Amino acid sequence: CVCVCVFLGFCGAQCPEIREHLMKVNGTKWKKIAEHQLHTAFIADEATRKQQVARFAETYNLDVLDSLFPEDPKCAVCGEAAANRCSRCQTEWYCRRQCQVEHWPKHKSICNLVCAQKQPDK
Question: Against a cut of 0.85, is the pTM above it?
Answer without folding.
Answer: no
